[in-house]
Sequence to fold (371 residues):
Amino acid sequence: MWRHITGTYGICPVREEFRHEHYCGRGRTAIARAIIENKLAYDKSLADVVYTDLCCWSCSEACSLLEGYKIRVPLITRAMREDLVKLGIGPPESLEKIGLNVKKTYNRFGWQKGERKAWAENMEIPNEAETLFFVGCHASYMYPEIAKSTANILKQGKIDFTILSDERCCGVTQIWDGQVQIAKDLANHNVHAIRESGAKRVVTACAECYHTIKFDYPELIEEKLDFEVLHISELLSDLVNKGKIKFKEYRKKITYHDPCQLGRGSNVYEPPRNILKSIPGIELLEMKRHHGSSWCCGSGAGQVVRLASPQLSMKIATDRLLEAKETKVEALVTTCPFCLNLFASARNISGIDIEIYDLTTIVMQAIEICS
Fold:
């Protein structure tokens, strides 16, 4: 049984900050029911509450431990945000800007479309392969070291792979902020492009891209996917188990942060840990909240809360970094660029002394290069 059920740590990060019922899963579902029963109407003050939901699946995880219950609160919040957008009350301006960026440049940052594949310069990547690396906006633009590390991991594992010539943002932010039509357009484009490539398997290093493509795209395009979707940690863990990837000694005390969309959202917990445990010299220590009870980084699904309520987001991220420091480790490792970016900002503002890495970059530092 989760310690959350006893109230030892609490369930909802937002509820822990604001201490009001309407900021937790039970309160949010009560609000949704009142709207359906015409006892409550949407307005700006209600929208402000709806856009503080991290949609981190923590309340749903706790609910599932009680026999007979499984309320998917994040999907209720998502539906409410879609209503707010239809009514012209949402999303907040900061999120609307991301939507405009995506429509204009096909990436969340609004950077040049032509720069999306700059990370792959001088890399020999075939035009066709059974495996397709879906890079994502963060790895393409902000963290090219993640893209390069993932590509090199695939090469070391002797896996031929290709990338899309016209990859576009996965649309995760628009799925979660209510601008669902933008997300549908992106999904239809990306799925069509993947099918045209002939790939049978899609690999991504981003927890948000992974959950979006695997679980949200079938709903958005209204049909099943005819290709497999894997997070790089799943593929890499299999390569390590088969002896196709080997590591040299890499001494460091590490804790692993479960991204909400990869962990509770997709039930992928062990592959990243298996990889870290297989690296000689790494000591993997768990934070007090891990696996299903892992505390959210504060970004929120699609980075919605970070953009809508930056101070709230930063406070939650700082709390998580302090929890990591309590574990007496040198570094925190995660598998989500959204988490990575927020933790780096929180560290810089708070002055908490801890190294922060994406799993792929740690692997490339420790991998035993084979010719």
Residues 1-8 have pLDDT under 50 and may be disordered. The chain has three domains: 3-86, 93-238, 243-366. The chain is about 50% helix and 10% strand.
